[in-house]
Specification:
Blueprint: E1 5-9, H1 14-26, E2 31-35, E3 61-65, H2 71-77, E4 84-87, H3 93-102, H4 110-117, H5 119-126, E5 134-136, E6 148-152, E7 162-164, H6 167-180, E8 185-189, E9 194-203, E10 207-217, E11 225-231, H7 237-247, E12 251-261, E13 264-271, H8 279-287, H9 291-299, E14 314-321, E15 326-330, E16 335-339, E17 342-348, E18 355-356, E19 365-373, H10 376-389, E20 393-394
Parallel strand pairs: 1-2, 1-4, 2-3
Antiparallel strand pairs: 5-8, 6-7, 6-8, 9-10, 9-12, 10-11, 11-14, 12-13, 14-19, 15-18, 15-20, 16-17, 17-19
Helix pairs in contact: 2-3, 3-4, 4-5
Length: 395
């Protein structure tokens, strides 16, 4: 049997449980999951959704407790000669990259992984290509170029991200955030424009664009992603690729968010891993390729597959978002179905009985419905029928 692949993970996610672990099993790989939360990754305690049966997920695999934020402990826990070391976590790209480099394995550069995760470093590194005002949130003066976006320097999922219009709002919001968390905050120039994503995959020699989504956000001051719609990459995409190249991004999957305004593309943030919130499954279905397997094989040293055929048709990922706090008492389970020519799939992200706290972030998702069909009209009609046929009740 081939050398094992070590998967480095924090919390349990559908991307790992229903994506990468089954993909490793299909490739015939022994999988060793390194995590600081071993109980969360057992089959009974995994993520809420169960779209596909997963008994095979834990065949020929094991779970090892590890301080995954420390590359030295990752290295110490690798007791079998590894074929690859991989993570799909925002927070764990740099320590995973360092561990892979220690064993001489293919992987992301730890410098690129660090500067993409740290928003202050990213802005500093891109200053020559795209200068953006960015400062420590506690060092911003009243004459800064408001409005600004206040955010955790290494945050995710729109958590504690606010649009602030003046110094008074900034002070109030940063004090509010400080009560909940103690990590550094940055205040960045607000970048207007249409919001897009860029999904890329690289093997260290070639970086390939897989596609792009248009993103609809909630009204300010929050930045909740309310809908992602498949669309051709905008003409300004080469500007984004140039910035990714400057950051050193070129290996494995990368999910980049950027805005386009008056012919100029400007990066909002770079997530040096596969797109989340179930859009990874949508992307795999839309491309019609075993995407999770492709990514793992790159981390095992293989080259990119021949060009992926361009998908035909239309696709949307639309989360069901909690509109009030309380207890989720009624909600559908995971399923896949066909509505005419449209393929629908729903994955819950919260279980019946879960206590819901509305946060104004992507953590408010109750579940996500994915739809793929021949054209926009058929997809939109199927989404309307899906919502009309199902109920989510928060009591």
């Amino acid at each position: 049997m081939a050398a094992p692949v070590y998967v480095v993970a924090g919390k349990a996610t559908d991307s790992v449980t229903h994506g990468f672990l089954p993909a490793a099993a299909r490739l015939g790989l022994k999988t060793i999951l390194l995590t600081d939360r071993p109980s969360a990754h057992t089959p009974r305690n995994g993520p809420a959704s169960s779209e596909r049966p997963t008994p095979h997920t834990f065949q020929n695999s094991s779970i090892v407790e590890c301080n995954v934020s420390d590359f030295r402990d990752i290295i110490a826990r690798v007791t079998e000669t590894p074929g690859g070391i991989f993570s799909n976590s925002d927070f764990l790209q740099a320590p995973t990259a360092l561990a892979a480099a220690y064993f001489g394995l293919p992987g992301k550069g730890w410098q690129a992984a660090t500067r993409t995760k740290n928003k202050a470093l990213m802005r500093r590194h891109l200053a020559a290509l795209d200068p953006v005002f960015s400062a420590d949130a506690f060092a911003v003066s009243a004459d800064a170029p408001f409005p600004l976006v206040l955010k955790p320097r290494e945050g995710v999922a729109s958590e504690d991200v606010f649009l602030v219009r003046d110094i008074r709002e900034l002070i109030a919001r940063r004090e509010e955030i400080a009560v909940r968390r103690g990590d550094p905050l940055v205040a960045e120039e607000y970048l207007p424009g249409a919001l897009h994503t860029l999904e890329t995959l690289g093997d260290g020699r070639e970086l390939r664009v897989l596609g792009s989504f248009r993103t609809r956000l909630s009204p300010p001051p929050f930045f909740v992603e309310e809908r992602l719609e498949w669309a051709p990459p905008p003409p300004e995409t080469p500007q984004v690729l140039a910035q990714l190249d400057a950051l050193g991004v070129g290996f494995g999957a990368c999910h980049t968010e950027f805005v386009v305004h008056q012919g100029r593309a400007r990066i909002i943030e770079v997530n040096y891993r596969l797109i989340g919130d179930h859009c990874d499954f949508l992307l795999a279905d839309l491309l019609g390729v075993p995407l999770f397997e492709h990514i793992l094989r790159i981390h095992l040293g293989e080259r990119l597959e021949p060009d992926v055929p361009r998908p035909r048709g239309h696709a949307v990922a639309e989360p069901i978002i909690a509109d009030r706090p309380g207890t989720l008492t009624v909600a559908p389970g995971a399923f896949e179905t066909n509505d005419g020519a449209v393929r629908l799939a729903y994955r819950p992200q919260r279980r019946v009985g879960d206590v819901i706290a509305v946060t104004g972030t992507n953590r408010d998702y109750l579940g996500t419905v994915r739809a793929i069909g021949p054209d926009a009209d058929q997809v939109e009609s199927a989404l309307v029928r899906f919502r009309d046929a199902h109920t989510w009740t928060i009591a």
